[in-house]
Amino acid sequence: MIGERENSDAIDRLIRAMPKVEIHVHLEGATGPDTIWDMAQRNNVDLPAGSRQEWREFYEFRDFAHFIEVYISATSAMRTPQDFEQMVRDFAGRQAAQNIRYSEAYVSPQFHLDAGLSQEELLDALAAGSDSGWSEHKSRVRFIADISRQTEMRRDDVLPFALAGHERGGLVIGIGIGGIEEGHPPEQFETIFAEARRGGLHTVAHAGESAGPASVWGALRSLHAERIGHGIRSLEDPELIAYLRDTRIPLEVSPNSNYRTKLVPAGEPHPIRALVDAGVYVTVNSDDPPMFSTDLNNEYLTLARQGFSFEELWQLNLATLEASFLPENEKAVLRQEWMAFADKTEASSSGL
Q1: To the nearest 5 percent, what fractions of the chain are helix, strand and coil?
Q2: What was the pLDDT predicted at 346?
Q3: How many CB atoms lie within 10 A of CB 164?
Q4: Residue 344: is its pLDDT beyond 90?
Q5: How far apart are CA 102 and CA 226, in angstroms?
Q6: What is the structure's pLDDT at 2?
Q7: Range 170-198 average pLDDT
Q8: Residue 32 and residue 312: Cα distance in Å, rounded?
Q9: Residue 169 confidence (pLDDT)
């Protein structure tokens, strides 16, 4: 595709123009602080901040544990079906503005069911927002029901929620685990994941983010995870890297998330380079974009600034499409669009 002689402006334009898919982004974490503040005021929810500005400043994470605190505080403001319909519709619009054609968004039903929404109300709101987002922006959203591993409240309700959502034309396509890895290993969720697979759901797991390779091994062996969220600490185990390379199990990598939660020190190259060089199947994602002052375009631009060529970025983009849980007929349609973009870019640039 593009050679090293192409300047950063050209790469920037190509990144912004290329059609994309995103498979690791949290609906709640993709909702900006101002929207959260407005919801809290409307729903009479007290946030750990005395003003809108203090709430914005609360997003400056001290560490991973503080990020989880902010995330849980933000979800507490989301109380009504209208909140969720707005969140999904607005999310689809922001994705469309980046030429993201399809997103698999994590949603954390435990918090919302515990706050008083019924399963039907939440699913209706997600469906309405997704339908509106598609009709208005032509960016499709499907959901993965994410279990907050450190939170026992309403945990048993996540699988029924996911199965009910799956029956609604695949509105919910999978089940996952997220949150604090330490002290909450994947093995604790083996039974739930087995039932999810029997019900036709895909299985994913956050692992190897704040915990080491044992967390990834647990997700693979006990949960039979089809994709691993983050997984960057897999690099600490050469045997695991070899396994990931040979099985082609995708990692959902989010560079700026790791920087902002201080799991990767600022100023250091992101370990995604080492993963790519090791032949691991890697995808690029934004995780919780407004919380990390990023979006998917910026994730690719971050990698470009760290020396990735556009050819490499394009291959990561293709890998993300192929790693999605889209049905093959839908994936084939997007694949044609991806190739049309590549052909058009090649025809218009001598470097392609």
Answers
A1: 55, 15, 30
A2: 74
A3: 16
A4: no
A5: 19
A6: 42
A7: 97
A8: 30
A9: 96
Instruction: Point out the residues that are catalytic.
Output: 209
pLDDT the model gives residue 131: 98
- Distance, CA of 79 to CA of 115 (rounded, Å): 7
Instruction: Name the pTM for this structure.
Output: 0.93
| pLDDT in the model for residue 325 | 98
Write out the two tokens for 352. 């392609």
> Hey, is 210 helix, strand or coil?
coil
Q: Which of 278, 211, 273 shows the shortest CA–CA distance to 243?
A: 278
Please give the torsion angle defined by the CA atoms of residues 307, 316, 104 and 91, in that order, rounded to the nearest 10 degrees: 40
Which ranges in 138-205 belong to alpha helices (H)? 158-166, 190-198
Q: Which domains are seen in the chain, by residue range?
A: 21-325 (3.20.20.140)
Q: What percent of the chain has pLDDT over 90?
A: 89
Query: Rounded CA gap, 96 and 120, in Å?
Result: 27
Question: Phi, psi (5° rounding) for residue 334?
Answer: -65, -35
Residue 312 CA to residue 275 CA, distance in Å, equals 13
Does 62 have pLDDT greater than 90?
A: no
Of 23, 3, 16, which Cα lies nearest the Cα of 319?
23
AA identity, residue 33 = P
Tell me what the mean pLDDT of segment 100-115 comes to.
96
Q: How far apart are CA 83 and CA 117, in angstroms?
A: 11
Q: Could you give the CA distance from residue 152 to residue 350 in angstroms, rounded to a whole number?
A: 57
- Provide the mean pLDDT of the chain: 94
* Location of structure tokens 């709640």: 28
Write down the residue that tokens 């997600």 correspond to: 126
Closest CA to 149 of 77, 68, 75: 68
